């Protein structure tokens, strides 16, 4: 049986190739979004076009080259696996076909492509599931804007429900804790578990973004589930960009400081990311490890994202089931 319900999985997006020009095109769209960098346009656009897009793409393309796979960007290939796995699992659990499409906030496949593909499959009711566990104006806020911008060009659009966040969902916390436990079982256990979240400018939080609050709640719940005492875990924030203060403690400074405090064996996980990407595979797994070992650390274990794991997909099924109540 086919339902008239569909799911639009949304992630950030990624360059189409690990080349300077493809990275420039991606960064131009991404960093032009006022949800991401909210400075007045007259102030930001000359910096973006005159400095950032001239110098950053070359450096960032090299970083992408270090993680690029045969199937392309990890963010893209794993997101496609999630789409297929969710579609299969939804039809098993709900007993009817629920089409799932992927749309990226920036780049391809676009949000419009996802909406049109679902509509072509007869979906009149759409659950939009941004794969950002913690809400931020810079991510989920941007998804909402992109969706509204597409709807603004359509004479009729589908009934729509948006999952705002799932930072404290039992299935999400349970899947993170199980992934850490599995890792400990296979590789042994460090002295401390670092939970490194993507950062945002501190000002966004001061002005009302609930992102930091939700990250700290995720971290506390995972620590509780793993029965960790205070000294056995900490939350920190990575991927600082620009001169402004971002959320602290910064991951890179933490990695340098820990060995001096007698912590030489750590495990590190990034619970703000649904899939492994540049920020986990390069910044955390490669660069972070170098920083920690250079600072005197002995053992640095990177724990991958939940990706297309069965418990992660089951958690998405649960989110969809909650949203479609009243629709079936
Ligand atoms: C400039 C400001 C940025 C904000 C605010 C920001 C928030 C934010 N981003 C993610 C998730 C991802 N970001 C990724 C890459 C990335 N992020 C920024 C900047 C901001 N992010 C840049 C400039 C880049 C590109 C790389 C670089 O130039 O350093 C990615 C990886 C994409 C990939 O292709 O693998 C993800 C995912 C979150 C969750 C978030 C706020 C909560
Ligand atoms: Fe980012
Ligand atoms: Fe980064």
Automatic annotation (TrEMBL):
<feature type="binding site">
    <location>
        <position position="198"/>
    </location>
    <ligand>
        <name>Fe(2+)</name>
    </ligand>
</feature>
<comment type="function">
    <text>Catalyzes the ferrous insertion into protoporphyrin IX.</text>
</comment>
<dbReference type="InterPro" id="IPR019772">
    <property type="entry name" value="Ferrochelatase_AS"/>
</dbReference>
<comment type="similarity">
    <text>Belongs to the ferrochelatase family.</text>
</comment>
<comment type="pathway">
    <text>Porphyrin-containing compound metabolism; protoheme biosynthesis; protoheme from protoporphyrin-IX: step 1/1.</text>
</comment>
<dbReference type="InterPro" id="IPR001015">
    <property type="entry name" value="Ferrochelatase"/>
</dbReference>
<dbReference type="GO" id="GO:0046872">
    <property type="term" value="F:metal ion binding"/>
</dbReference>
<keyword id="KW-0963">Cytoplasm</keyword>
<dbReference type="GO" id="GO:0005737">
    <property type="term" value="C:cytoplasm"/>
</dbReference>
<keyword id="KW-0479">Metal-binding</keyword>
<dbReference type="InterPro" id="IPR033644">
    <property type="entry name" value="Ferrochelatase_C"/>
</dbReference>
<protein>
    <recommendedName>
        <fullName>Ferrochelatase</fullName>
        <ecNumber>4.98.1.1</ecNumber>
    </recommendedName>
</protein>
<keyword id="KW-0350">Heme biosynthesis</keyword>
<dbReference type="InterPro" id="IPR033659">
    <property type="entry name" value="Ferrochelatase_N"/>
</dbReference>
<dbReference type="GO" id="GO:0004325">
    <property type="term" value="F:ferrochelatase activity"/>
</dbReference>
<keyword id="KW-0456">Lyase</keyword>
<feature type="binding site">
    <location>
        <position position="279"/>
    </location>
    <ligand>
        <name>Fe(2+)</name>
    </ligand>
</feature>
<keyword id="KW-0627">Porphyrin biosynthesis</keyword>
<keyword id="KW-0408">Iron</keyword>
<dbReference type="GO" id="GO:0006783">
    <property type="term" value="P:heme biosynthetic process"/>
</dbReference>
<dbReference type="Pfam" id="PF00762">
    <property type="entry name" value="Ferrochelatase"/>
</dbReference>
């Amino acid at each position: 049986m086919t339902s008239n319900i569909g799911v639009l999985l949304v992630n950030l997006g990624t360059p189409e190739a690990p080349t300077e020009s493809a990275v420039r095109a991606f960064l131009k769209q991404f960093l032009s979004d006022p949800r991401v960098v909210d400075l007045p346009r007259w102030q930001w656009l000359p910096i973006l076009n005159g400095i950032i897009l001239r110098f950053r793409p070359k450096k960032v393309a090299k970083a992408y080259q270090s993680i690029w796979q045969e199937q392309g960007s990890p963010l893209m290939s794993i997101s496609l696996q999630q789409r297929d796995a969710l579609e299969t699992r939804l039809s098993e659990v709900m007993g009817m076909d629920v089409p799932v499409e992927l749309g990226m906030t920036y780049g391809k496949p676009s949000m419009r492509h996802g909406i049109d593909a679902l509509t072509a499959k007869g979906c009149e009711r759409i659950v939009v599931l941004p794969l950002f566990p913690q809400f931020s104006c810079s991510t989920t806020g941007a998804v909402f804007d992109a969706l509204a911008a597409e709807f603004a060009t359509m004479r009729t659009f589908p009934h729509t429900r948006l999952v705002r966040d799932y930072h404290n969902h039992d299935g999400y916390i349970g899947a993170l804790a199980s992934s850490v436990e599995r890792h400990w079982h296979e590789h042994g256990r460090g002295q401390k578990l670092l939970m490194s979240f993507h950062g945002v400018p501190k000002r966004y939080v001061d002005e009302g973004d609930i992102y930091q609050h939700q990250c700290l709640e995720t971290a506390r719940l995972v620590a509780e589930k793993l029965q960790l005492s205070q000294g056995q875990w900490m939350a920190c924030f990575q991927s600082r960009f620009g001169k402004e203060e971002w959320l602290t403690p910064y991951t890179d400074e933490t990695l340098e400081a820990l060995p001096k405090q007698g912590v030489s064996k750590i495990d590190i996980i990034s619970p703000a990311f649904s899939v492994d990407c540049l920020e986990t595979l390069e910044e955390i797994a490669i660069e972070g490890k170098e920083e920690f070992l250079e600072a005197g650390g002995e053992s640095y274990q990177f724990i991958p994202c939940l990706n297309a794991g069965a418990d992660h997909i089951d958690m998405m099924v649960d989110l969809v089931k909650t949203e479609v109540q009243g629709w079936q």
